[in-house]
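Most newcomers find our protein records easier to grasp once they have seen one. There is nothing in a record beyond a sequence line and a structure line. Getting from the letters to the tokens is the skill we practise here. An example says more than a description, so a record of this kind follows:
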Amino acid sequence: MGRVKLTVAYDGTAYSGWQIQPNAVTVEGVLTDALSRLLQEPVALLGASRTDAGVHALGNVAAFDTEHPIPPEKIAYAVNAYLPDDIRVMRSEAVAPDFHPRFDCYEKCYEYRITIGAFASPLTRLYAHHQRRPLDVAAMEQAAQAFVGTHDFSSFCSAGAQVQDKVRTISSLHVQELERLAEDGEDGGSLVAIRVVGNGFLYNMVRILAGTLMQVGNHERRPEEMSAVLEAKDRRKAGPTAPAKGLRLCYIRYGEEKSHNK
């Protein structure tokens, strides 16, 4: 028996999140079914990030044990033939038997995207939150720096979270305008990204950070208020939970001692 690590990308629009749920179509459920059909054996996936309904991923990670003789690096090519177009295994590789996608990672990166303009583009409507009014990106960037470091993020955790320890470390948090959405000089709007890197995130934490920073960008809050919001440890003091479709899991990183190929 060997353990195989999968790097998985997906468009989360049609799914009720990553985690298997009764009476719901999920990414984990579809991927588990595809692997079971390919390998002709029961498959139980270990996941790194249980993304919510409508959230996308470029590099979520899962692992499973198998007795099938297929070379681990070939599984990505084979299983993609069993998957719908909105889910793809981008890489498959052998890992140590005790490798765990969730507990062995040391860094995750999420990005929240916002389009700004008179109308939402049909090409971005599923992958970014849209608003008409411009955002003060400089104020958002200033506010974002209050969250860098190790803090209790209770103010940025939705009710219903199962964890007691709400201390997390954010190593990097930046807000920037990525591009203008029109090249012909017309007012086609712009694309703004909030990119956050940390050692782990609470339930809806990134979406609440995004919602709070958008309030700053809309001049509904001042950047100087962010430290007080953190210190309050009260969900009611932070901003709204931003819509799921703007969020994407960019990558998850692991130490070489467990994630390297055998």
Q: What stands out?
A: The longest helix spans residues 27-39. Helices lie at 27-39, 72-79, 137-144, 205-217, 226-232, 256-259. The mean pLDDT is 93.
